[in-house]
Amino acid sequence: MPNKINKIKAIIFDWGGVCCQEGEPFASLHLQKKLSMNPEEIIEKVKDIYIDYYIGKYNRETFWRAIMKYFHLKETPEINPVALSDAYLNSYSVYQDVLDLALRLQKNYKVGLLSNLTPEMRDHIRSAHQTEKYFKTEVYSCDKDVKVIKPEVKPFKVILKKMKLPAKNCLFIDNSEKNTRAAAQLGFETILFKNRPQLFKKIKKII
Q1: Measuring CA to CA, which residue among 100, 99, 142, 135 is closest to residue 120?
Q2: Can you tell me the distance from the alpha carbon of 43 to that of 41, in angstroms, rounded to the nearest whole number?
Q3: What is the mean pLDDT of each run of 10 residues along the chain (207 residues)?
Q4: CA nearest 13: which of 193, 205, 202?
Q5: Are residue 191 and residue 99 in the same domain, yes or no?
Q6: pTM of the predicted model, to two decimals?
Q7: CATH number at residue 115
Q8: Domain finish residue from 51, 74, 89
Q9: So which domain of life are we looking at (predicted)?
């Protein structure tokens, strides 16, 4: 938490795990049953394709086609790009109280979003949840000017440039310790998100 509260001018949120229960790309139970694997095991098998999706090298159609090709899956009513995508996009649930917090913070702070997301989920949350209402600056790993995932330095640098602030004036909230550690090394103040009551308690100290 910030030692000098008055120096914080921006608060930057992660999406999955902070603003919502994290989505699962391989949420399809039909896919899991067909492969006899859980989502973590699927990710391990297709790690390169998976990471490439998060940095924007695939769109929705090409990603799911690549997954089906890798596992030699024939298209069925249950296993096809649309069905697999639908399972993914329905696998998370928003924490509306966290979004409401972000909205309230706009009265006194710049509020941003910095997230590792696929193009598919990025476009979905923007449309479904009007993220621009809550976050005036949004940066995603799959964006054309980013194309790397946290904890790499570039995503942090991009959002700082867009917010026109140095790291020392920004508070970054993430549920991944490796990401908060990377941010702290750049000079950000950080909160390692554990749960919503913990977040609200810590945030109260600066608002």
Answers
A1: 142
A2: 5
A3: 68 99 98 99 98 98 99 98 98 98 97 98 98 99 99 99 98 99 98 98 86
A4: 193
A5: yes
A6: 0.94
A7: 3.40.50.1000
A8: 89
A9: Bacteria
